[in-house]
Request: fold
Amino acid sequence: MGKNKKKELASMEENFPQWYTDVISKTEMVDYAPVKGFMVIRPYGYAIWENIQSETDKRFKATGHQNMYFPLLIPESYLKKEAEHVEGFAPEVAWVTQGGDKELNERLAIRPTSETIIASMYSKWLNSYRQLPFLYNQWCSVVRWEKTTRPFLRTSEFLWQEGHTLHETPEEAQEETLQMLNIYREVLEDVLAIPVIAGIKSPKETFAGAKATYTVESLMHDGQALQSGTSHNLGQGFTKAFDITYLDRNNQQAYPYHTSWGMSTRVIGAMIMVHGDENGLVVPPKVAPIQVVVLPIAAKKEGVLDKAYEIKDRLKERFRVEIDDSDNSPGWKFNQWEMKGVPIRLEIGPKDIEKEQVVLARRDTGEKISVAFSDLEDEIERLLGEIQQNLYDKALKRREEKTSSAENLEEFKTKLKENPGFIKAMWCGDEECEDKINEETGATLRCIPFDAEQETIGDGKCVYCGKPASKMAYFARAY
Amino acid sequence: MGKNKKKELASMEENFPQWYTDVISKTEMVDYAPVKGFMVIRPYGYAIWENIQSETDKRFKATGHQNMYFPLLIPESYLKKEAEHVEGFAPEVAWVTQGGDKELNERLAIRPTSETIIASMYSKWLNSYRQLPFLYNQWCSVVRWEKTTRPFLRTSEFLWQEGHTLHETPEEAQEETLQMLNIYREVLEDVLAIPVIAGIKSPKETFAGAKATYTVESLMHDGQALQSGTSHNLGQGFTKAFDITYLDRNNQQAYPYHTSWGMSTRVIGAMIMVHGDENGLVVPPKVAPIQVVVLPIAAKKEGVLDKAYEIKDRLKERFRVEIDDSDNSPGWKFNQWEMKGVPIRLEIGPKDIEKEQVVLARRDTGEKISVAFSDLEDEIERLLGEIQQNLYDKALKRREEKTSSAENLEEFKTKLKENPGFIKAMWCGDEECEDKINEETGATLRCIPFDAEQETIGDGKCVYCGKPASKMAYFARAY
Reply:
């Protein structure tokens, strides 16, 4: 009987989608709501989101941003004010048409994103350059009516944050756009242990109404990419459409420059699909709802349970810790907590107590070590740091193994088939080439990396049309 | 020119509703959204909510509760499963009838509260008594289509938390109901410095579908009451309607006992209307977004600004502190920060620097004291504690002054007119008497206090019908 069988998980190598579905259900992270495409985030999933939120919000505040709350419902006429925006979002809007017993005069959209309603308020609030920049964010849920859904990855409602800022100059807006992208990179890499490729989206993949969209892209275990956070330089499109004007330093009426940026519960999906293994979840210590689980061994022997509780209470001061003193067998418990991805399992039995030590088992490597009672906190601190780093290193190595480059379409197809993952290839900038690559390979252009990460593949010719190309782009099949 | 004129605030004694509207707009706590009845919570208001949230959430977690997230949209058929519940909420539901381009087969309610959808999930999750109790909460927004609205007090969308728990026995459910009511009392009294009357609602005022509703009631400056948090013992009404069953300790199928409890952004309205004065907001230190504002005096004199920044940076380690180094006049600044209700104003000018001291001015009393640089942190800590306590004491004294008792309807009317506030009066328990009192006085029955706070008014006869009455109740006009 294989390990998976015990946990009733599909094998991730044989059937990755089923493995994903099994893991998220059996670890009780999420469940399916009565309305198709909607999810219930259960305590184990939500606690991870709370940790991600707190790490992210801290960084927003440290860079001078404040939180607000804008209403859930947006009048249809507002959505229509920015032409590209409404075209992009209208097909997936949920519409409120009745309030109480009455038919409404105008349909109200449940926010799919809040640029329009926020722009309308900014236009009311902004008078003088002295008030700029506006640096605001909100944490909320949004609704986008999706046809095909999967919990965390694509759902008709999801939780996210959306930042919306105004600036005096285009340079400041660009700087903000990149600063926030960098915060997403930090949260993904330093907090979630997920290495990312940062860069700009092609015009085709740019946010509806934006001048430029920047993205951080991560690579899942199955070689598919996941857009993990985006930051938009909105230029003056919305500020003009919503007539946001102010008196500038020269006492002239001017339009400010605008950015928006968002990261959602999707990143929980990324965390699962980057770090998970055949035994289930592997949760990075910095976001783990439980960092250490204490398992009393032979708990009925005198003194064991007391000592286990004593240690749990001691560790609670510094770590997120739980004890499992249920009647289940040790083997069952090992499997359960392994599946839940708890970074460290702490075992304590009569023999350990005699020796004044415990056994610590790492979720990421399976390695076990004995640690004296007296060294416990320091050793756990060290181990958690090591696990966090190891998860990042492993994910980076895997991404590098799954990244190829291609000089022509045949090579592109072959490599994508033989080693699914990122394909680095030159692109001439023509949308037709982008479309054709997608049609023939199923891969989309994920991003064009920044200059510092640019390189020339082969002789610098577009992988599709063979014309000279100045930029290398990352392509992949994507969620 | 009176103080109010300078700040363009209406006088709270002359026109309380206008004072409220002025204060919330001019301090930039909140603004009106494009859709009537909806509000935008601006950074100064939202930061207060974040502080309330964090104080409340901490207490939920300390009592073993975990957070989750349930979907925004609820199928109409779910709302209808509990007969009283749908009757209570249907008239104020916002309905989604279109998703993307399609008409939906079934209308979806934007949650007005989540008992029904949560009960449906609980019915899926609960199998055995070993899983009980279920102790879950969610922070979210809800929509109730209201006719007459006022920011924070009554809006068509508001932010809140809703806890939903399941228990093995009716005793445990009752204990939970009262425990959570007590947490609301703590948050209101210890954090928001608002004294409350706790008790049970009359059947007429009980939550739609509940067995019993408990409430904490606070009294505003104008003598009107505000329901500030409610905790419901739901009995088995929803667990039966949604067929939530489990195998109990005797291996029998059983229905669990159910509670729910909520507190919302309304309490920000209470905070404003309990502590505010003719000069604007007075924010209790524990929730103040800014606890100390540093004002450099004669800031252009050499060294003043540097010293002011040095002090701000020093204080930042322990307090929420801001500096105002704008070009506005000191008088203008004093008024602004006073209006915003910042608990302590710290002034520092050339003479202070010479003497190595600052001046601290209290928002609640106006009192000013000089404090040496070396004692700053300790003195501020002490002052903030004193302000917090003083706000509570003042509010309690005011509530006591505004609480009368009445033995018959004439006395009830006279006292309510002469001294608007709480009227303590005996009530026989008959809904007809409750209705008549309301019709003739405009007051509603706010709550029947717990036995420990019960007293007999006059000869113990019902204030309306004169029949023997076993309980004293609090009545008031209410928001």
In short: The domain at 3-275 of chain B is CATH 3.30.930.10 (BirA Bifunctional Protein; domain 2). Chain B has a mean pLDDT of 96. The radius of gyration of chain B is 25 Å. The first helix of chain B runs from residue 3 to 7.
